Amino acid sequence: MPTILLGIESSCDETAAAVLVDGLLRSNVVAGQEVHAKWGGVVPELASRAHQEHIVPVVAEALRTAGIAKEDLGAVAFTRGPGLVGALLVGTCFARSLAQALNIPLLAVNHVHAHVMAHFIRDGSNRPSPSFPFLNLTVSGGHSQLVLVRSPLDMEVIGTTLDDAAGEAFDKGAKVLGLPYPGGPLVDMHAKLGDPHRFQLPKPAIEGLDLSFSGIKTAFVALVRREESKQPGFARTELNDLCASLQSAIIDHLLAKTRRAIRLHRVSSVGIAGGVAANSGLRERLQELGEREGVEVFIPPFAYCTDNAAMIAEAGRHLLEAGQTAPLDIVPVPRTS
């Protein structure tokens, strides 16, 4: 009998479900939440309500696309955390109920670990995946970490942000420029047309491998507001150069720490994951860093960078193989310590 696993993701503002059959991805369905755009960011209460509306049709579509009946499922993996507590509760309760009704194993997945496992999703494309151990730069709206990955179940965070995440800095910068939410992709688009050296932003002076983006974000917001007060319309007329300068400062900091970690831990492979991994500037410059440092670079397809259930199912697969199942009364963990 094949091993059929359902993955469920509901940590923030995407409701997602995916099906793996013997480790091969058969479906990956994601429903976004446009309701947050007019507020300029994710509203937790609205996110949890949208998850309640989406969870049943999204799971049904994932099963239909995979050609699988729910009775055929062998296990259910879900995002336990970190994330928004109300959003996590929706996915957790659904997964617990389904596992109990079908009498199948329940698998509790760490969302940030799952981003790392995006490198190993098998979808028939024959993409290469990194060999263990490797270094992974995980960057998203809520997380920025350097992770030493020894195996699917052995990951050590060797550097983390001390304040804001990289994705948050992108989004806050976009907001002060008047760009709609989500602003990160728009900053990337405009940055391609701008001069990254036009506006100088501070370089965080953080020891070791930890990261910090609050100084860059604060300086950028202050710059735009100061110049707008002198020259109304400044943000609009200088949009491309402002975006390029912000993006360059964030990427400079990320890659300086990544380079230090490569040399310190002497890895031969480095990967990137998380929503910010979709940023074209970061992708290009990481490839350049890999060439200079003599390491192989691995970047997942765009569909597996942003929040999705394929990565949850892949991470759950390894938990299942290791016998690390969860009790039916498990509760979400919104934050990591």
Describe the structure in your own words.
The protein is α/β, with parallel strands linked by helices. The protein folds into 2 domains: 4-124 and 305-321, Nucleotidyltransferase, domain 5, CATH 3.30.420; 134-300, ATPase, nucleotide binding domain (Nucleotidyltransferase, domain 5, 2-Layer Sandwich). The protein contains 10 helices and 10 strands. It has helices at 44-66, 85-102, 111-117, 166-176, 184-191, 214-230, 234-237, 239-265, 280-293, 310-321; strands at residues 4-9, 15-21, 24-31, 75-81, 106-110, 134-139, 144-151, 154-160, 269-273, 296-298. A 5-stranded mixed sheet has the order 3-2-1-4-5, sandwiched between helices. The protein has a 5-stranded mixed sheet with strand order 8-7-6-9-10, with helices on both faces. Strand 1 and strand 2 (15-21) form a beta hairpin. Helix 4 packs parallel to helix 6, helix 4 (166-176) runs antiparallel to helix 8 (239-265) and helix 8 packs parallel to helix 9. The longest helix is centred in the last third of the chain and has 27 residues, at 239-265. It starts with a strand and ends in a 16-residue tail after the last helix.
Q: How would you briefly describe this protein structure?
A:
With 337 residues, this protein is of the alpha/beta class.
